[in-house]
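Please, structure for the following, as tokens.
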Amino acid sequence: MKIALPVNNAMTLYRDNPHTAPKFAIYEIKNSQDCVIFTLASIVQNPWNIMREKNFDNNQVQCKCDFIKENTISHKCEHYALLDAINGCKYLLANQYCKNTKNTMRNGGIIISKIPPIINQIDMAIKNFLIGASLADTIKHIHHGS
């Protein structure tokens, strides 16, 4: 399984809208009976970051585009460039994302998994994802313990 994480130029987690991230770190996850191993498979440039030469406005970076811009066809189409960049990934791990990023990833078969705000390191983000995903797949019932 492959997952993508938005990263900045220093190769640390990019905490803002993944649509505006400079790069994506693509990790491959392999598991055997007794362990799970994740390795960096590649680093891909965000095609929009290259084309815009880092000129995203603050509203785009913070996922606060106004309703009119958010619903224009050109703005929606911009998000589809990410599908080409992270092609082959099953998950995108991100701290925050806009409605258009969510819809684009869903339409491309990529599931977005949130990174909790207290996690600041890539390896911890992956481990948190793996533990959460494995628990979610095996839990049958959740009971309130009062």
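The radius of gyration is 16 Å. The chain has a mean pLDDT of 81.
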